[in-house]
Amino acid sequence: MANDEGGEKTEEATAFKLGKAREKNQIPKSQEITSTVVLLAAISALLLLAPYAWERLVGLFRHFIWRMTEFDPTTADLWPWFHLAFRELLIIVIPFALIITIASVAANIFQSGGFNVNSEAISFKLDKLNFIKGFGRFFKLKSLIDTIKNTLKIAVIGYVSYLVIKGHLDEFAVMSEMEAVEIALVTLRVVVELFYKVLLLILVISFMDYAYQKWQFMRDMRMSKQEIKDEYKQMEGDPKIKARIRQIQMENSKKRMLGDVPKSDVVITNPTHYAIALVYNSSLAQAPLVLAKGQDLLAQRIKDIARESKVPIVENKALAQALYKAVEVGQVIPLEFYKAVAEVLSYVYRLKGKVPGGRRK
């Protein structure tokens, strides 16, 4: 008990605390995943778009060469030349930039669970320029983990490079007998294979790093039992929290109410504005019970469920409107409605072959 009162953080963080942390952009995130995904996307874009980019560049140079005979530096207007070159370069670069941007955004969304823009995280603070604190952070556990992680990455790159090169030693041995084009193709194939294998392995390491970051984040976010109690007291006094709780309670109540519609004996309608689902079972209550009621769209939903469940729907405008205003869900109908409701139930029981009280003939 003493430890709990002293603030030992043994409890998992509440949803409220995690939400507050997210608002401040405090979320588990691995920069390794983002950088690796971006690099992988850049190389893939280069391989995919290289023929297209080469064709555009060759076309641009050919255009300049063909027009070179018309070029007079003393009288020529250079703007059309610059404009053409700039436009062609943009056409080449934009697809690359778009692919890399999409990859970067996707990697961050994956880790963040959605868009999370926070002005506080990018605001300037003098504390960020505190070199003493920065030097102190260098010796923390996180720095040690980063050092181990980077060492592991270097070891992986070295080992994979060794395996790839070893697998192509036979081709390297006969390169002296190859043409220049063949040498270039072999080299390109080896480089591409090396890049992809290294990047895929680093991506695996990055996901492991993300798992560690998430574990560390949840560990750092732990709360003491006293903190949970204090948070609950704070939430009780917050009007926004109260409104949210009421909203959730109303939604849950609505779901339970709609789930009870198939159990009803009849649904009395206005027919468009109101719908009231009634059940009469002598073992539950001495009078018919209101299982569900609704207005407009909710009334339509009650009627839809009634039709799906083959619950009789009876139109009685005056009775439906009066019941809606006078009786809440879960309550029995008042005495003044006994006769009107009894007539409706008698009609329904004759259709269904039942007797009052919920028993079949």
Characterise the protein shown here:
The chain is of the alpha+beta class and 361 residues long. It folds into 2 domains: 15-114 and 130-220, no CATH class; 245-360, 3-Layer(aba) Sandwich (name from scop). Helix content is 66%, strand content 7%. The chain has helices at residues 2-6, 15-23, 31-67, 79-112, 119-122, 131-137, 141-167, 169-173, 180-220, 225-236, 239-260, 297-308, 317-326, 338-352, and strands at residues 266-269, 274-279, 289-295, 313-315, 354-355, 359-360. Strand 1 (266-269) and strand 2 form a beta hairpin. The longest helix is centred in the middle third of the chain and has 41 residues, at 180-220. The chain is elongated and about 105 Å long.
Shape: elongated
**Rg for CA atoms:** 36 Å
Strand content: 5-15%
What letter string, H or E per element, gives the SSE order?
HHHHHHHHHHHEEEHEHHEE
Tell me the helix content: 55-70%
Largest sheet: 4 strands, mixed
Structural class: alpha+beta
**Mean pLDDT rating:** 77
The number of helical elements comes to 14
Strand order of the largest sheet: 3-2-1-4
Uncertain stretches of 5 or more adjacent residues: 1-6, 357-361
Say how many strands there are: 6
Distance between the termini: 63 Å
Number of domains: 2
Write the layout of secondary structure elements.
Layout: H1 2-6, H2 15-23, H3 31-67, H4 79-112, H5 119-122, H6 131-137, H7 141-167, H8 169-173, H9 180-220, H10 225-236, H11 239-260, E1 266-269, E2 274-279, E3 289-295, H12 297-308, E4 313-315, H13 317-326, H14 338-352, E5 354-355, E6 359-360
Helix pairs in contact: 3-4, 3-9, 7-9
